[in-house]
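Protocol step 4 of 5: obtain the predicted structure for the target chain.
Materials: sequence only (see below). No template structures provided, no constraints applied. The aim of this step is simply to have a reference model before the mutagenesis design in step 5. Sequence pasted as it appears in the construct record:
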Amino acid sequence: MSLFDLSGKVAVITGSSRGIGRAIAERLAEHGARVVVSSRKAEACKEVADAINKKFRDHAIVVPANISSKDELKNLIEETNKKLGKIDILVCNAASNPYFGPLGGIQDDQLRKILDNNIVSNHWLIQFAVPQMIARKEGSIIIISSIGGLRGSPVLGAYCISKAADFQLARNLAVEYGPHNVRVNCIAPGLIKTDFAKALWEDPVRLKAREETTPLRRIGEPDEIAGAAVFLASSAGSFVTGQNIVIDGGVTI
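Step 4 output (structure tokens):
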């Protein structure tokens, strides 16, 4: 049996109607997992689930949820349990960044939204999902962070702060849940060609500058993050916890 086989596993992926989340949902399903496609908009989720089920029959369902709502995140876990029976893999991918500019100009509501959606919502979702993993003594939790959490930025300061906090959230929970064989890790993408990161790559001048300072001389694609998620979710990553896997084309070196 392949170390990457996920047959019989159930995975919940937030923000999986597009971009990195969609790529992760598709690749987890390809490796045998049944996946829960979740984001705010049910129709967008349905399109992704239908595409997955067309390739891999009965491998995807939809449970919409807004990460800013604690009640909706609780419902996401409860509905998954009702429909699929358990959760083996949780991917906290959804995030927000309503402000682009120096920290001195950010409004209080924008700062709170970034911190709440990128840190607190992950804490909530993990709290709801982890008891069943602890009971079975098996589980993998993956937080999609960013290389922004490793560096400062003149225009993404609050977002970078939130992503740095995700690294510590993973480390701390890895210590707490490790004795129960529940693993918690982060993936830190560099600049990936998604709608979420459009402000960073749709400007030709900014894109050229990034490419010139990236050893691989290009930005990444969503599917290039998905492989790491498969690794961390599967037996191949069974001795990895509390870590941050950087996937950035070499930018941070």
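Step 4 remarks: Strands lie at 10-14, 34-38, 60-62, 89-92, 139-144, 182-189, 244-247. Residues 108-136 form the longest helix (29 residues).
Proceed to step 5.
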